[in-house]
Amino acid sequence: xxxxxxxxxxxxxxxxxxxxxxxxxxxxxxxxxxxxxxxxxxxxxxxxxxxxxxxxxxxxxxxxxxxxxxxxxxxxxxxxxxxxxxxxxxxxxxxxxxxxxxxxxxxxxxxxxxxxxxxxxxxxxxxxxxxxxxxxxxxxxxxxxxxxxxxxxxxxxxx
Length: 159
Known about the structure:
By secondary structure, this protein is of the alpha/beta class. About 20% of the residues lie in helices and about 35% in strands. The longest helix is centred in the middle third of the chain and has 14 residues, at about 80-90.
């Protein structure tokens, strides 16, 4: 199974140290604008077949964030507010708790990307979450590299 290790449940645990501090998302060293908005939580079932004809399936939890206004400098959402929104969402859609966690975001709400979160620090009066772009991979090649001697079933792009 090819998925990101963090779940929404795990993420909430990681940011629970102080619910009153601002939750700041950062991508490429740049903080997203304050007054951002969590627009939706999506529970996504993925069924896939890769270039080596290997079928796979997994569950993703996608959190979409709308960037705040550039010219407005309000406050960042408190970690506890994000937690409450997520907990309400998980009550309605329990599958959100365990899926591979992915954030969707684009600065100034353009060119939205799929990103994996990493809680970087809980200090200086805020929680910083680094959002890293997901990378394309060839799963058969990865399976071959992970096996001891490779495998005929791990061929890339086999027809």
